[in-house]
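BUG: 3D viewer hangs when loading the predicted structure for this chain

Environment: internal workstation, default settings.
Expected: structure renders.
Actual: progress bar stalls at 90%.

Input used:
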Amino acid sequence: MLPYALLAYRASIHTSTGATPYSLVYGTEAVLPIEVEIPSMRILAEAKLEEAEWAKQSYEQLNLIDERRLKALCHGQCYQQRMARAFNAKVLHVTPDSRGKFSYKYDGPFVVKETFSGGAIILSNMDRTENALPVNADAIKKYYP
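Structure tokens produced before the viewer hung:
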């Protein structure tokens, strides 16, 4: 089953490149086994070509392979930027605390300044100075004066 899985992988368009791996290597799309039994429009068009014309078209496609690879590279870079933006929008950035893991990070009453989905909360002191690090909402207890 591995050859069939590899054929499916190499003949499918990948989101990251916008092209099939087969076309980036060989400059043309792969001929699927089903297209041999039931000819597609592409196979019928190639069957009507003279051998010299078919060779000329294949040579022109090979000349354009560098352009296709460059286009796939640009598409891949745009894809990575989109994924990075989506990841950064969902991740709450936390700077490491230099006081050590056993020290008290919060002391005294606080006011909830901002809440985020997922249970993160930004706290501020009673004099409205904001703490830099977010806190998990499960670690907060209600303060009764």
